[in-house]
Amino acid sequence: MEEQFQVDMDEFLPLRDVVFNTLRKAILTGQLKPGERLMEVHLANRLGVSRTPIREAIRKLELEGLVIMIPRRGAEVARITEKSLKDVLEVRRALDVLSVELACDRITEEDIARLLKACQDFEQAARGKDASVIAKADVDLHDIIVEATGNQRLQQLVNNLSEQMYRYRFVYIKEESQHDTLVAEHREIYESIAGRDKERAMRAARVHIDNQEKSIIRQIRLENESRLNKRH
């Protein structure tokens, strides 16, 4: 049976924005998979809307790089490539290292307690195996660190990257073998910030992103190999 999208009908948003947000979330969480064709009629039926808001949403998703147009084939979900991954993670790595460095100087005791609670919540989520819950717990933990810097421009930059990061993070988190590593990395980041040890925190932040990059690249290559094997 085909999985149904969760449509959040917001009374303050036009229908086209509701459709866009729904399709965007489906792509970011992997409900709509990389390489999957986006058929207007099919999506309109699934969401119970006309083709017009679907067409508008696809155009906006193309501008965001989440959808690509293929000649004679139409729209499909953009694949996660090594280049796009590295581009995003290079920037995220720099922002995360800066965030933990500033947090070591500026974090309050109250936020240290919140960070510990976020680590514990992540550990509990990881035991539950639900990728959406784990991803949210991961975002919540990193948000506390960025907020602790007190730097609004830094928060803005991280937020601008967050949606693209969510897509890569979701791919990573679905690999259950990485959950113990993530728990240990979060604990290391927490302990170094709580101890206000900048060098340790910055090193932990780099390792955290480096391990994500290695894991996702491995999955991208496996997927590419599988796709090539299917063709032959």
Structural write-up:
It is globular and about 55 Å long. It has a two-stranded antiparallel ribbon with strand order 1-2. The chain has about 230 residues and is mainly alpha-helical. α7 (about 150-175) crosses α9. It has helices at about 15-30, 40-45, 50-65, 80-105, 110-130, 130-150, 150-175, 180-195, 200-230; strands at about 65-70, 75. The model has no long low-confidence stretch (mean pLDDT about 90). It is built from nine helices and two strands, in the order αααββαααααα.
Features:
single chain, 232 residues, mainly alpha, two-stranded antiparallel sheet, 2 strands
The CA-CA distance between the termini, in Å, is 29 Å
Q: Proportion of β residues?
A: under 5%
| Portion in helices | over 70%
Structure summary, number of beta strands:
2
Strand order across the biggest sheet? 1-2
- Helix tally equals 9
Shape: globular
Order of helices and strands: HHHEEHHHHHH
Topology:
Blueprint: H1 15-28, H2 40-47, H3 51-63, E1 67-70, E2 74-77, H4 82-106, H5 109-128, H6 131-148, H7 152-173, H8 179-194, H9 198-231
Antiparallel strand pairs: 1-2
Brief overview:
This protein is mainly α. The chain has nine helices and two strands; from the N terminus they run αααββαααααα. About 75% of the residues lie in helices and about 5% in strands.
